[in-house]
Amino acid sequence: MEAAQHVYWTQADFGYVMDRLNELKTLCNPVRPGDSSLTCSSFTRYCRATNLYMDLRNPRRNDERYNEDFFQDGEIGGYCDLNKQALLAEGEHKSPLQSWFAELQTYSQLNFHPIKDGRCDLIIEKPVYFVKLDAGVNMYHHFCDFVNLYITQHINNSFSMDVNVVMWDTSPFGYGDLFSDTWKAFTSYEIIHLKTYDYKRVCFKDAIFSLLPRMRYGLFYNTPLIAGCSSTGLLKAFSQHVLHRLNITQEETKVGKIRITLLARSTTYRKILNQDELVNAMKTMFNFDVRVVDYKYREMGFLDQLQVTHNTDIFIGMHGAGLTHLLFLPDWAVIFELYNCEDYRCYMDLARLRGVHYMTWERESKVFPQDKGHHPTVGDHPKFTNYSFDVEEFMRLVLLAAEKVVQHPKWPYKQKHDEL
Q1: 36: which DSSP letter?
Q2: What phi-psi label fits residue 46: left (phi over 0), alpha (psi between -120 and 50 degrees) or beta?
Q3: Rounded to whole angstroms, how far apart are CA atoms 144 and 68?
Q4: Torsion angle, alpha carbons of 181, 187, 188, 189, to 10
Q5: How many Å apart are CA 85 and CA 346, to the nearest integer?
Q6: To 5 degrees, how large is the angle CA 21–CA 227–CA 11?
Q7: N or C: which end of the chain has fewer CB within 10 A?
């Protein structure tokens, strides 16, 4: 059991941070104080550079967001003693969202000090976090970015807001971000696009290349969770950090009421066809406070969404990225993935990481798909249709969820509920 706990701690908790710290190796050594340096974890998944030089006078921009040939020799580097062989040995994970090897493989040992010798058109004094981002329109994928930026802050041992975040993107395009308010938990400034520095030689006094969203055995997209373990201090700390920085708080509520939020979908697929029937059934319970929401960004800002989620005891929704809100549920809450559409592990594992109780539909004979589903290329697919649910079975599961809530030792209304 202790061995399993240790594996889980290193896979998904602060042991993961410790492992990355233990991997750090200096690839470019400063010879004298004030020289440049480059230090990276294994496979260049995280790196830190000081007095970093970038020559962006002739940017090779094309339609690729992560062009692997963006820099040539001499266009990125530092005034330090480079172990080129050690750097090139870190390329096994070369991939846009898995490592920084493509960006750093041409890091060069310069024969000039970029700052002292006046070779910079622009000197960035503030610490900079470089990030390569996953899909900004999908909460599940985008929060892989935020979680890994938070872990990077632990590796860097700094949570200062007086930093710049630079979005690494070698295309000329913008970036659609439906969750941009979340950046306010990490920086006091607007996010900077790399193209802002085009046509200049830019020197960064302190640059951090953040952990990436789709790393092999990373957090949380590719986390291989050992069986029998749940809850991590790291993901709970991330949740608390974001909620605190964004000023999301618990509200006063009616004594003993269980707050239920049902996440509706206005998308083409995975809609609940008898949603009104399910909602009306829940409203017959005097101790349920039921709310139906549709987290459409044009109608409800993300901070308002978080406020609703954080003040929910049972969060119900169909399989979809909106269930990533479970990261911000209170500790005593239950996430009820109404139907997982045969994607069994995605939100169950995320709930395990966060440490909230997970439930999903149990009896296949009591869920009724509209049809077999119509994926545009692979044909029949359970994610590409809509569903009705047996009301009695639905209520059985909701009542089980409610029992989990009131029995949780952290439920703030436990004593008053028992008195009632």
Answers
A1: -
A2: beta
A3: 22
A4: -80
A5: 39
A6: 10
A7: N
Q: State residue 399 phi and psi, 5-degree precision.
A: -65, -35
CA 270/CA 382 separation, integer angstroms: 9
Identify the residue whose tokens are 């750090």.
24
In this structure, are residues 382 and 342 in contact, taking their beta carbons and an 8 Å threshold? yes
Strands (E), 1-140: 25-29, 37-40, 47-55, 76-78, 81-82, 108-109, 122-124, 128-131
| C-alpha closest to that of 160 among 184, 182, 186 | 186
Q: What is the pTM (predicted TM-score) of this model?
A: 0.95
> Which pair of structure tokens corresponds to residue 216?
């092999």
Extended beta strands in 63-104, E state: 76-78, 81-82
Q: Buried (b) or exposed (e) across 122-135, using 16+ Cβ within 10 A? A: eebeebbbbbbbbb
* Backbone Cα Rg of the chain: 24
Q: What is the distance between the alpha carbons of residues 412 and 399, in angstroms, rounded to a whole number?
A: 19
pLDDT score of 227: 85
381-419: per-residue pLDDT in tens? 899 999 999 999 999 999 999 999 999 999 988 654 444
Dist. CA 151–CA 165, nearest whole Å: 15
* Confidence at residue 348, expressed as pLDDT on a 0 to 100 scale: 95
Residue 414 is predicted with a pLDDT of 65
Q: What are phi and psi of 89, to 5 degrees?
A: -75, -10
- The residue written with tokens 């911000």 in the block is 328
CA distances from 25 to 4, 11, 205 (A): 28, 21, 19
